[in-house]
Amino acid sequence: MPHDTSLIGTVVAGLGVAFLMGALAHRLRISPIAGYLLAGVMVGPFTPGFVADTGLAMQLAEIGVILLMFGVGLHFSLKDLLSVRKIAVPGAVLQIAVATALGMMLGLWLGWSIEGSVVFGLALSVASTVVLLRALQARDMVETEKGRIAVGWLIVEDLVMVLALVLLPAMFGARGDEGTSAGLLQSAAIVLVKVVGFAAFMFVIARRVLPWVLHWVAHSGSRELFRLAVLAIALGVAFGAAVIFDVSFALGAFFAGMILGETQLSRRAAEETLPLRDAFAVLFFVSVGMLFDPKVLIEQPGPVIATVAIIVIGKSVAAYALVRAFGHDSRTALTVSVSLAQIGEFSFILAGLGVGLEVLPETGRDLILAGALLSILFNPILFTLAVRRIRAEQPDAAEEPAEAEAAPAPCNAGVVLIGYGRVGSHIGSLICGRGEGLTVIEDQKDMAAAAKQAGATVIVGDATKESILRQAGIEDASTLLIAIPEGVEAGAIVRRARAINPKLLIVARAHSDEEVTDLVRRGADHVVMAERETASRMAERAMLAGA
Predict the structure, then answer these.
(1) What b-and-e string marks burial along 133-160, b requiring 16 or more CB atoms within 10 Å of the CB?
(2) Strand partners, 528
(3) Count of CB atoms situated within 10 Å of the CB of 294
C-alpha cells in the first residue's frame, strides 16, 4: 500500500548522512558540526541524489532549539539572568546596532534598497542559539560568568528580534495608517505588552503550576510518564509562548526550563531530555546545510567574503570592545565575542520575511545562508584559538566554572570520585566519614555543593576532559572511583585516567556485561555491576536464612 514517507525519509537521511559525515569529521580531528553541515548540503536540493524535505527539516530543527534552550534554562536561574543584565542588555543592543550598520553599508554598496539593507544587517546581527550553547556546553562554560553573560546576551538578542519581526511588516510591508509613526508605536506597544504578559504568566502562574505537575508525576513512580511530562512542558510552553504571546519558541522554552530549574527534579529532567536534544540539534545543522547553494561561492565570492567578515570579525570586535568597556577582563570579552561570531535560526526567519516583503533580494538571502554556514563552520576553530589564548593568560582556570577556580588543591595520593549522585554520595559519605581525603569531580552545581558540604574537595567540570582530571590530581592519586551511570563517558574517563597514571587503581560502575567488558578493556581494574551485586547479596541472605 502507498505511504507518505517524506517525514521518515527526511529524518533517516538527515541523521544517517550526518552520522557518516560526523564520524569522518571526528576521524579527521575537526568539529563534527562541519560534518553535519556537509551532510545537509548532500541531502539538500542543490546537489544531485536524494533530496530531503527542507520545510520538514526546519521544523524538526526548531524542536532541537526548543529542547536545547529548555535544557539551558534548567541550569540558568533567574538570579543568574538578572546578574548580567547590566552588560547583556546594553551590550546586545549596541552590538546589534553595529552589526546592522555594517550589513546596511554592504547592502547599499551592492545596490539594494535601504529597507532591504536594514533587513540584511539585522539578519547578520543575531547569533545562533544552537551553535552558541553547544560551544559553551562542550567547554563547561555555561555556568561560568563568561557563559552567563553570553547566554544573557543571547536572550536579549532574541527579544530584539521578536520586536523586529513584528515591526518590519508594519514598516516595509504595510500601506496607509499601519506605516505611520502611530502605527509603529502601536505595534511596538503591543509587542511590549505581550512580552511582559508572558513573563508575568511564567513567574506568577507557571512558577506555581509546572513544578507541582512535575512533582506529582515523579511521585507516581512512572519514569515513562515523567519523561513525557518533561517533554510536554518544554514543547507545550514553547508553542504556547509563540502562539499566544508571539515570542520565540526558544525564549518560551528557556523560561520553562528556568522555572523547573528551581525544583529538586531539574537534574532528572535534564537527563531525560538529553538524547532528544542531541538528535534534534544535529538536525538543526543538517537543515542549515540543506538551505545552502554552493554556487553562490563561485558566482559571488566578494560579497560572500564581506558577509562572513561582518559576522566573524565585525560582530566579534564590537562585542569584545563592549565587554571590555563594561569593565570585564580580556578572557570574558574574548569568550563572549567568539560565542557571537556566527548567525543562525533567527537570521533565516528574517531573510525569509525580507524576501516575502519584497524588500530583500533573493541574492541577500543566499548571502545570509552562506554567511551562516561558513560562520558556523569557523566558530569551533575560533573557540579553540580563544581557549588557547585564555590558557596562555591563565592556564589553571581557562575553562573551569567559577567554583572550580577557587577550589582548594586536591590531596596527593588520595581518592578521586567521579559523580556525586545516588551512588557517589554514599561512597563519599563513607570515605569522608572515615576522615580520609577525597576529591570529587561533579558537573552539577547542587551535587557539587553537597559533596563540598560533606567535606570533599570539589572540582566542577566534565570528567571526560583531561584538564579536569589533572586539576583533580589524578596523576598523583592512588584510586579512581567512577560512580556515574553512563557507560560511554565512563569508558572515556578510564582511558584518559589510565594514560595519565598507569599505576592508578580504577574501580568503575556498569549496568551490563557489555559495559563491564568495555571498561575492563579500556583499563579498569574492577567493575561493579549493580544487578550482579544485588543478586549475589540476595542469594547470600537467602542461603544464610535457610542454614
Answers:
(1) bbbbbbbbbbbbbbbbbbbbbbbbbbbb
(2) 509
(3) 13
